[in-house]
Amino acid sequence: MALRALRPVEQFIHVEAAGGITLILAAIVALVWANSPWAHGYEALWHTPFSIGIGNAVFTHDLHFWINEFFMTMFFLVIGLEVKREIVGGTLANVKQAALPLTAALGGMAIPALLYVILNAGGPAPAGWGVPMATDIAFAVGILTLIGSRLPPGLRVLLLALAIVDDIGAIVVIAVFYSSGLSAGGLWLVGLGILLVLVYVRLGFRPGAKYLIPTVCIWAGLYRIGIHPTLAGVIVGLMAPVKPWYGALGFLRVAREAINEFEYLAKEQGAPEEQLVSPLRKLSFAAREAVSPVVRLVTGLHGWVSFGIVPVFALANAGVSFSGVDFGLDGAWLIYFGVLLGLVVGKPLGVLAFCWLGERLNLLEIPREVGYRGVLVVGTVAGIGFTMAIFIAELAFMDPGRLVIAKTAVLTASVAAAVGGLVLGRVLFPK
Q1: Helix (H) or strand (E) holding 61
Q2: SS3 assignment, position 106
Q3: Model confidence at 99, in pLDDT bands (50, 70, 90)?
Q4: Are 50 and 62 in contact, with CB atoms under 8 Å apart?
Q5: 171-178 — which CB contacts under 8 Å span 24+ positions?
Q6: Residue 210 phi/psi, 5° resolution?
Q7: What is the pTM of this model?
Q8: pLDDT for 301-326, tens place per residue?
Q9: What is the average pLDDT score of the chain?
Q10: Which of 60, 138, 145, 214 could form a disulfide with 51, with the two C-beta atoms 3.0–4.6 Å apart?
Q11: What would the DSSP string read from start to end of 219-280?
Q12: Coil, strand, or helix at residue 62?
């Protein structure tokens, strides 16, 4: 039973690990390009205007906007689907299972934010406290993969569960604290989109292309309200149906019937080929409903997000031109060290402290094979903020100069946390 429960997690981790390599390569390309003689082309590419609309209703923004605000909705959709799956039947399915990653994630979010606030209290950039709270799943899992099989499987599961809870926290922070100029004008669009999803689920419509209509409605409504529109992906993901109509055993029953019918018709002399369509349709439908729509969507979309959307996001946002980094800017060093210390020091400190406190209060139990050395490794690797940290930095810093400082700190901290996690993993878990 335990092995069967771990299989979806292991599959998710394998995709994230491979996606992490692609992510790193995209970030390196962005950095080299932004600091090369062709840096102007890098900036010009992402500021290329792109329009979408019908007739007079045209929506125009640059390519950078569409990547950050629209394509990343797919990234948040996968997060929403994975959260739904973990809540229904995974590591967050009950209080006992969820206690450890939940406590670790809370510590890993609270202490980094607190360190940033302490350093930047009264400074010119207090809004950046959300930047060091984030963890990049793909990058972090990739580092654990490099450490190798010496790590117990429970450590990878703990990191994945922590990162999922961390993503939930980041979503709440974005929705509550990084949404400005709220307007009720788009509420009806959000309500219409949610109503459409509820109707689809009630009528038995499985997730697919038809769900694009309510997703766009929710996205446009959130944009008009002033809430970050990528959260539309989370909303739709959390509303996706989780129960298959047939399941594994039902699939076997229907598949046998369909195959027997197909075999009978195929052997019957002179039977028209059109008759073979019916059993084939039954078999195809049963195959689709053998697993839940949430699992099918995560499996289908995860690769596209990990190998396509997230690397493109990194390519568009990680290109920090070091010639434009101005530490003479008011509060620049406070921003830099607030983000850097928050991720590199605050993450492991918060994860360790909250887990220790939770164990002392009998709220959780740390698995023996993981121990506090494993918690330290997970906390250190969780300091790799990258994708989500850069995403929040884009929302927190309107001033281009301070945004560059924040991105530089995120890149520095992510490299430091990656190296630190790699060294700690090899030292604390000898082969």
Answers
A1: strand 57-62
A2: helix
A3: confident
A4: yes
A5: 171/76, 171/79, 171/231, 171/234, 173/130, 173/133, 173/392, 174/130, 174/228, 174/231, 174/392, 174/395, 175/227, 175/228, 175/231, 177/130, 178/127, 178/130, 178/228, 178/392, 178/395, 178/396
A6: -65, -25
A7: 0.78
A8: 888 888 888 889 889 888 888 877 78
A9: 84
A10: 60
A11: HHHHHHHTS-TTHHHHHHHHHS----SSHHHHHHHHHHHHHHHHHHHHHSTT--GGGGHHHH
A12: strand
CA distances from 263 to 251, 258, 278 (A): 18, 9, 12
Both tokens assigned to 186: 């788009």
Reply yes or no on whether the pLDDT at 146 is more than 80. Answer: no
Give the three-class secondary structure for 361: coil
Residue 369 DSSP code: T
- What are the tens digits of pLDDT across the range 3-30? 444 455 566 666 666 667 788 888 889 9
Structure confidence by residue, pLDDT tens digits, 60-98: 888 988 888 888 888 888 888 888 887 787 667 777 778
The mean pLDDT of 238-267, rounded to a whole number, is 85
The residue written with tokens 């038995």 in the block is: 204
Rounded to whole angstroms, how far apart are CA atoms 207 and 241?
A: 8
Confidence grade of residue 331 (pLDDT, cut at 50, 70, 90): confident
Per the structure block, which two tokens stand in for 356? 């220790």
**Token pair of 183 as six digits:** 């307007």
Of 65, 10, 113, residue with least CA distance to 345? 113
Q: Which two tokens stand for residue 90?
A: 């995974």
User: Residue 376: in which H helix or E strand, if any?
Assistant: helix 371-381
Total residue length of the chain: 431
Structure tokens at 137: 């799943």
Side-chain half-sphere of 227: how many Cα atoms within 13 Å?
A: 24
Closest CA to 258 of 287, 285, 280: 280
Phi/psi of residue 337, each to 5°?
-75, -25
